[in-house]
């Protein structure tokens, strides 16, 4: 079965306060990096998945992202998918 | 009356609940290991505080898939009484038994202190021993207890009497000062404060006793 690799980016919804991001933004100023007007922290999840075809891989990864990796009440997610099977890995 | 107390790897308030229920109030309790599927003979289930499965990914996100919770969801659906305390509240929201989500405290600190709460009118059977508007004191102990819901949902929850406990002095930035929430039927309650730690006079106040005592009416 072809191997697909994906990266799922999970971010807090814009309306949700990110106190950890705010604390990090304050530290950026202490480092001397001024002018950081926005800093929000999310997660990047790397996934490798065997699936018969890209459509099926995408469906599985969307389920995974929406039902486990992110909580849609507070988070958004995006999916980057690539087919690794032809890379000769 | 028999009370089930769920135990995940990483639970740390399971024995506190047992002491409060059985030791202080004489309610028979039985631990339910996370792989257990048999809830027979139980009248109510508590999902206790702690760090279920290490709280990896998000608080309660992994616990949602525990075999015991499939049964707890069915139990709640049948009208069984379910109480989620602290991590248990986070688990109930991840399961979708209660709406909204719990997020990082506004000021990032883990907060461990006695907290005044106002009991709001609502259908919650767990709170039948309290009067509406009464102020009670339960300890809190959490880093991720900031309740989050969009304004429309928050209004709907308030209107339907599901916001059953509010902080008098909001410690964590929760929207609407929400400290505890019930489902529409009132048989499921989730709250961040710890009523089980307010049951034994040896260690402080006893405002939490009536919550567990509601089981023995």
Structure, described:
The complex is a heterodimer of chains A (89) and B (217). Helix content of chain A is 33%, strand content 30%. Chain A is α+β, with helices and mostly antiparallel strands and 89 residues long. Chain A has one domain: Phosphoribosylformylglycinamidine synthase subunit PurS (Mth169, Chain: A), CATH 3.30.1280. Chain A has helices at 19-31, 54-69; strands at 3-12, 43-50, 75-83. Chain A is elongated and about 50 Å long. A three-stranded antiparallel sheet of chain A has the order 2-1-3, with helices on one face. Chain B is an alpha/beta fold. Chain B has one domain (2-213): Class I glutamine amidotransferase (GATase) domain (Rossmann fold, 3-Layer(aba) Sandwich), CATH 3.40.50.880. Chain B is 21% helix and 27% strand. Chain B contains five helices and eleven strands. A nine-stranded mixed sheet of chain B has the order 2-1-3-4-11-10-9-6-7, with helices on both faces. In chain B, strands 5-8 form a two-stranded antiparallel sheet. The longest helix of chain B has 11 residues, at 14-24. Chain B starts with a strand and ends with a helix. The model of chain B has no long low-confidence stretch (mean pLDDT 97). The chains are: A alpha+beta (89), B alpha/beta (217). Chain A binds chain B through residues 15-20, 23, 68-69, 71, 73-74, and chain B through 57-58, 61, 93-94, 99-101, 103-108, 146, 148-150, 173.
What are the main properties of this structure?
heterodimer, A: 89 residues, alpha+beta, Mth169, Chain: A, three-stranded antiparallel β-sheet, 2 helices, 30% strand, B: 217 residues, Rossmann fold, two-stranded antiparallel sheet, 11 strands, 21% helix, 27% strand
